[in-house]
């Protein structure tokens, strides 16, 4: 169970001195990153991880948590004002947010989005606080077979939930597994895929790789698109929602909070799925479903609450099991590792005070972006007008400086540039990047624990069937894969039927 004494001490630590400053700055810049279309929470975290090296671990983590939660919320601002999601997670907010802005209720829409995001985020932050210690204590029973099964499940979900093309998700995941093999063999100690380069002996530089994949690639993409964005001139008024507005949105919160939590806990699904599921369920249960898509405040509330409710769920498997819930928490996991904090059940044993400070940081971060979002709503609305011809060079410079600052070696700059170009090509040709990153993290975990399990079983792999927890997790992974493949085949069949019908009608 959570230690209330340590939790209160965590709040005292987070809300004092440099930690509070870091939280405010992280939340502030997180909202800005989220509000600018094309920039993502993952990108913001990846760029700023190197700049936390000179900070204490908790100061750096608190700032990154502020960026994470703030960016997820900030994406809704662009969705409401210009019909362009600031982040992929905010796509569902467009449905009712933009019609409200067109009707002269942009301020009301942003106010509801802000409060709803805070409610969803705070709910799952509290769930994280009280459930994480229980899950971590349960995970202490795990050994190599169970961790191998968890890694397989994570890979199954990662690959099968990769958009319209699971094949491209599989290719991306396999590439990540290959990248995980670069460096020294975890059991034998011999070199693999180093090609004679001494710099690769310790494996790929994780943070420069992430900066390249999620930040530098976006810079390349921004170069080829139109450098001017829609201008915002909306006048925001009546930003703070009324009690009547909140009462109307209450059913949406009751549905979106648990949906976001469940989706967040499941690896690799993401906040966008949580937002769409929350929106769809709220619309289905509404007495006026026809009003959705025409400026219904409950639609904005459901989407924003659902996407932010996924954040605590994403952090839960990362901090308790060492399995990141999405690309953003993968970067957070890398940040913890850099500060000599290894996520997993042993973190709760070795550094309980840090764990409770992270809990307090998550709760405080969700409160902070609400405060900043309401106070500076008019300023954040104008952030969308930033000319991208100034933004792109800033992205390039920050990526290069951040990558070099890690070890002060040229190798990290080369790593960032190579993976930046690779990420750009993957985005351009519709290959998901997240499966590759998550597969690299889970691949190392899967290989090392499988080989330990084989040694433990004296070479008899059938002994996996005698471990109930491992067997259940492997069965769940197989079930998830089969269901995903069946759904994809049905989707492709429906598309083919629709195309045939269209061709038949055009032939007439």
Choose one word for the global shape: globular
Tally the helices: what do you get? 20
Total domains: 1
Number of beta strands: 2
Mean pLDDT: 84
Helix content: over 70%
Distance between the termini: 69 Å
Strand content: under 5%
Strand order of the largest sheet: 1-2
Low-confidence stretches: none
Describe the protein's architecture and organization.
It is a single chain. This protein is mostly helical and 508 residues long. It has one domain. Helices cover 73% and strands 1% of the residues. It is built from 20 helices and two strands. The protein has helices at 4-14, 17-35, 41-48, 57-82, 94-102, 106-139, 144-160, 166-180, 206-224, 243-265, 271-285, 297-321, 327-338, 345-350, 352-375, 377-383, 388-407, 410-428, 434-456, 468-507, and strands at 183-184, 191-192. Strand 1 and strand 2 (191-192) form a beta hairpin. Helix 7 (144-160) crosses helix 8 and helix 9 runs antiparallel to helix 17. It is globular and about 70 Å long. The termini are far apart. The mean pLDDT is 84.
């Amino acid at each position: 169970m959570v230690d209330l004494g340590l939790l209160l001490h965590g709040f005292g630590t987070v809300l004092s001195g440099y930690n509070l400053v870091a939280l405010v700055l992280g939340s502030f810049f997180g909202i800005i990153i989220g509000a600018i279309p094309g920039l993502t929470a993952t990108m913001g975290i990846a760029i700023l991880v190197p700049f936390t090296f000179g900070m204490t671990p908790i100061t750096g983590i608190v700032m990154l948590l502020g960026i994470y939660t703030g960016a997820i919320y900030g994406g809704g601002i662009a969705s409401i004002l210009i019909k362009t999601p600031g982040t992929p997670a905010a796509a569902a907010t467009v449905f009712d947010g933009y019609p409200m802005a067109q009707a002269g209720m942009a301020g009301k829409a942003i106010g509801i989005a802000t409060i709803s995001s805070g409610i969803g985020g705070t709910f799952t932050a509290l769930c994280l606080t009280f459930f994480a210690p229980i899950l971590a204590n349960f995970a202490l029973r795990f050994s190599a077979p169970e961790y191998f099964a968890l890694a397989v499940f994570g890979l199954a979900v990662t690959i099968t939930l990769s958009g319209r093309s699971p094949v491209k998700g599989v290719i991306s995941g396999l590439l990540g597994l290959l990248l995980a093999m670069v460096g020294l063999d975890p059991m034998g100690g011999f070199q693999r895929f180093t090609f004679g380069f001494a710099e690769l002996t310790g494996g790929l530089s994780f943070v420069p790789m992430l900066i390249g994949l999620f930040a530098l690639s976006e810079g390349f993409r921004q170069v080829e698109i139109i450098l001017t964005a829609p201008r915002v001139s909306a006048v925001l008024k009546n930003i703070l929602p009324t009690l009547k507005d909140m009462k109307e949105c209450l059913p949406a919160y009751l549905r979106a909070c648990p949906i976001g939590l469940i989706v967040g806990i499941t690896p690799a699904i993401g906040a966008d799925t949580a937002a769409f599921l929350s929106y769809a369920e709220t619309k289905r249960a509404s007495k006026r479903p026809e009003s959705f898509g025409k400026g219904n405040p409950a639609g904005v509330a459901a989407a924003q609450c659902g996407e932010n409710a996924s954040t605590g769920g994403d952090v839960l498997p990362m901090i308790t099991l060492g399995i990141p819930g999405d690309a953003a928490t993968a970067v957070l996991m890398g940040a913890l590792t850099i500060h000599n904090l290894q996520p997993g059940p042993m973190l709760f044993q070795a550094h309980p005070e840090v764990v409770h400070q992270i809990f307090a940081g998550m709760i405080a971060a969700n409160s902070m972006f609400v405060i900043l979002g309401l106070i500076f709503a008019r300023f954040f609305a104008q952030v969308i007008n930033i000319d991208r011809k100034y933004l792109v060079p800033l992205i390039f410079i920050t990526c290069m400086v951040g990558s070099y600052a890690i070890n002060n070696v040229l190798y990290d700059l080369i790593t960032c540039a190579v993976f930046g170009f690779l990420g750009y090509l993957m985005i351009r040709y519709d290959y998901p990047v997240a499966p590759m990153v998550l597969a690299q993290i889970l691949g190392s975990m899967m290989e090392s624990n499988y080989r330990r399990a084989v040694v433990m079983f004296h070479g008899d792999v059938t002994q996996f069937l005698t471990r109930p927890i491992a067997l259940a997790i492997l069965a769940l992974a197989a079930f998830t894969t089969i269901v995903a493949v069946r759904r994809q085949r049905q989707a492709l069949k429906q598309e083919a039927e629709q195309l045939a019908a269209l061709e038949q009608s055009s032939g007439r």
